[in-house]
Amino acid sequence: MSQVRLRVSALCFRDDKVLLVEHKSFAPDDPRLPPSYWILPGGAVERGETLDEAVQREMMEETGLECRVRNLLFIKELLYPHPGIQEQGTLHHSVSLGFYCEVTGGEMMTGKDPEYPDDQQVILRVNWLPIADLDHYELYPPFLADYIRNKPEKGFAKVLPEFFPSPE
Hints:
Helices cover 11% and strands 39% of the residues. By secondary structure, the chain is mostly beta strands. Strands 5-1-7-6-9 form a five-stranded mixed sheet, with helices on one face. Strands 2, 3, 4 and 8 form a four-stranded antiparallel sheet that branches. The chain is globular, with a radius of gyration of 15 Å.
């Protein structure tokens, strides 16, 4: 792999629910990974695009919803295979920036990844999942459920960004 991919994601809340996208596994042949998992809406930043524009585009593509991008919440690195393995990061290496966002409009739908043909789509469905029930879902990245449940008393609008390294 010659480049590290820059990705963005949106953390959105409505009542006591969080917006998540069920996604097919990026490594379906790895028996250690589930066949699908729930992730924040998001994806790769395109050349010439601001981070805000990338978040808004990815939200619209994947969920049909419009959003206002607020503050940076976290920085997540992913290497696959994971660190500690001789081939670490040879199949995938990305840095993802997670932003707190507010849904401002649109109509929720299960979107598509435009880089894949219809018969190879990876988005399975989009839903507002109850925060109290997150343990019943396979979330990725691994810190996400606890991060959401431990929401600061004053909300995410004034949170300082945290760094989450790739798991070993």
